[in-house]
């Protein structure tokens, strides 16, 4: 720090206009702030300048050569011209040179109509070329995975995509290869490209070199009606444009929102809209007759539900329970909470369908304890059982930016995370032994000296065998270092469901209690909306006995999910991109949803269904009766004496791309999800005789499944890792709710039909 | 008196012209039994032309869609596959519709077309009994064989 007061502002002349900007501003930024247009290709305002494309050349008095405006820092008294004859000539030359090898196949290029190269060639280009030689010839398009296509002929080597992977995402998904004339962009490892943010490179590519394979040739910019909405997958609540043509969402783009997603999206958001137009959407109410679900009219279905609700009320209060909320909007959640509390009169509501009874998830309210922006200003991040790139990818971009500014990352996990090379410390142990690692962190120099320590406690930690202990350790850690404890738990609009009252009321049971109560016959009717408990409840047997113990099951669904298949009445629901309303993200921010497309058939918004039911129950409801309740924080003591730990345990981890009901219906994403598999550590694999890509049988106390094994040190010795959201591994069948880790035996299976190459 | 003579002469001169044309062949034809030839650059109904080898010229770029002042054209593009190479390159028009009720026959689409696919032919008999029948679809617009539209299939654009 200099003792003398630094000059904080400089004044320069650009095209004859005096402009005052803060010191450190580049000439390009100064010009843009004054509304002077300088053409660019390689510069992107979220990344430091590079000066590779030479498109932004300007003339500066007293400088002998033209300068690149994007790299030149504005200084006092500088006189800049962006329109002098020398600059014009340079711009024409640059474009003529850039177009030497550009194929000019705009008519068949997806970027046509929204292409910076096209626009600038029209505006600043010479209009003709002196080069008659044959252009560079590459095979095209090159598929770099299920969602990304590369056309090397069109690439102008601006390096935006490469630098995005280096600077913003930190995954180095794309790299430059070769030198000089032969330079090209490619993947550093084998195909497909390994990134969760590759959609952003498509968005920032200034030419049509990187294009989306799912949007390929489906529309032109002038065909599209963009709808400003919010992504509803992971709970970060990224702002998006849903591009609609002919009643179908064709692509999703990031909408700039500096406080939430900045300018970025993850690939789940980018390519996750296909489910809306899936062919197997439910279009009419279904009612079970003679043991089968059959189509019915809305009146018939609603009358039946209302009659059952009334019949239950006659038997006594509180004999109805409600589960779900993740896929509901705030308005739907509020209508559901109001309906069940005030009209039906039951306190048994819960959106936390996937929480086990003995973990830490039920005791705390979910979400961040600070805004995303505050989180991004942290100087120490501790991820405890939180696989951030799989669970909240765009949140990772904020943490990555903080790390680049000098923050430290500490990972406590049962698995080697893909972001481990950005971590200052990585503490790994088996899933049931993580709590001592967290407790020991208080002695860690970096954590102890951190000024703004953010501890993110994830699902793997909270729902694990040691959840309550981990929560306590993390809580005492943040108290010790005066940090913030974030509960990185919940997806979709879980946070809205929590905020608008889909939580047990006074004397009400939480989700596991509701299931146990249902199994014991405490309920006449179970109502499910915005959730699929048949696959989401981590103890599959608990769901099955709940289903058979309850007389009547009503489900709102967009698809015939496993829960819907078991229901007595299925009411077709709109999905979130079809509804106007709001959602709440994990920091508690209210974000707007806009109906992009119309729903199929007779599907209705959940809110409307609850209002129709209320009317049948004799109550006319408006939409503004939201009762906000704060969840009661209570930390249950951990169950003592978990017993001897088995030699191998099952750990269920989250993955960004799965075969779930939404992502599993999106082209591109389903390929990214791949096939179901389990991860086994090389040491365990050698002991059990398991080979990579071979089939294994996983036998737990409760079930056995045959699944492909991947031998990998991503997992740790002593644990077999499986992922949620795959049909091939019904994780809810493998284990039961239990405070002890679930033991598993793994044995290789000879593939049927002999050897596979 | 001289005035009356002058008027009579004028009257006779007029009848003379009528009488002269009375013995000439007529310029009108008995449409629709008889049809005339239209000018070579007449802008009639559209054709989607093919190259001489039968491959479609249209690449589904939608430039005609954006240039059309009456928004009469709808195009939905799709990708060529090795098994189904509809046009040259990667892209072809999967759907191509022109609403002949909207079309004002300005010829901008023909001018905008980068591959010379869309041309305006000589056919002007475009009436119909329903609105739906006047939305021309891709099978109706595509030349049945190269050159069927009257344009040289070997031309470059």
Structural topology:
The complex is a heterodimer of chains A (757) and B (157).
Chain A: E1 9-14, E2 17-22, H1 27-33, E3 57-60, E4 67-68, E5 79-81, H2 85-98, H3 116-124, E6 142-143, E7 148-150, H4 160-169, E8 175-177, E9 184-186, H5 198-204, E10 210-212, E11 225-230, E12 239-245, E13 248-254, H6 267-271, E14 286-289, E15 292-295, H7 298-315, E16 320-323, H8 330-344, E17 349-350, H9 372-376, E18 380-384, H10 388-391, H11 393-404, E19 408-413, E20 425-428, H12 435-440, H13 445-449, E21 453-458, H14 459-462, H15 467-481, E22 484-488, H16 494-499, H17 511-519, E23 525-529, H18 533-536, H19 540-549, E24 552-557, H20 562-565, E25 569-572, E26 581-584, E27 590-593, H21 606-616, E28 649-653, H22 669-673, E29 677-680, H23 682-688, E30 695-699, E31 704-711, E32 719-723, H24 731-734, E33 745-749
Parallel strand pairs in A: 1-5, 16-17, 16-23, 18-19, 18-21, 19-20, 21-22, 23-24, 24-25, 28-32, 29-31
Antiparallel strand pairs in A: 1-2, 3-4, 3-5, 6-7, 7-10, 8-9, 11-12, 12-13, 14-15, 14-25, 26-27, 29-32, 30-31, 30-33
Helix pairs in contact in A: 2-3, 4-5, 7-21, 8-21, 17-19
Chain B: H1 2-22, E1 46-48, H2 63-67, E2 73-79, E3 91-99, H3 108-112, E4 118-120, E5 135-136, H4 138-141
Antiparallel strand pairs in B: 1-4, 2-3, 3-5
Structure characterization notes:
- The complex is a heterodimer of chains A (757) and B (157).
- Helices cover 26% and strands 20% of the residues of chain A.
- Chain A is α/β, with parallel strands linked by helices.
- In chain A, the strands form 8 sheets. In chain A, strands 15-14-25-24-23-16-17 form a 7-stranded mixed beta sheet, sandwiched between helices. A 6-stranded mixed beta sheet of chain A has the order 28-32-29-31-30-33.
- Chain A is globular.
- The model of chain A is unreliable at 1-5 and 624-645 (pLDDT under 50).
- Helices cover 22% and strands 15% of the residues of chain B.
- Chain B has helices at 2-22, 63-67, 108-112, 138-141; strands spanning 46-48, 73-79, 91-99, 118-120, 135-136.
- In chain B, the strands form 2 sheets. In chain B, strands 2-3-5 form a 3-stranded antiparallel beta sheet. Chain B has a two-stranded antiparallel ribbon with strand order 1-4.
- The longest helix of chain B has 21 residues, at 2-22.
- The N and C termini of chain B lie far apart (72 Å).
- The model of chain B has no long low-confidence stretch (mean pLDDT 94).
- Classes of the chains: A alpha/beta (757), B alpha+beta (157).
- The A-B interface holds A 105-108, 112-113, 140-141, 216-218, 220, 222-223 and B 59-63, 65-66, 76-79, 89-91, 114-115.
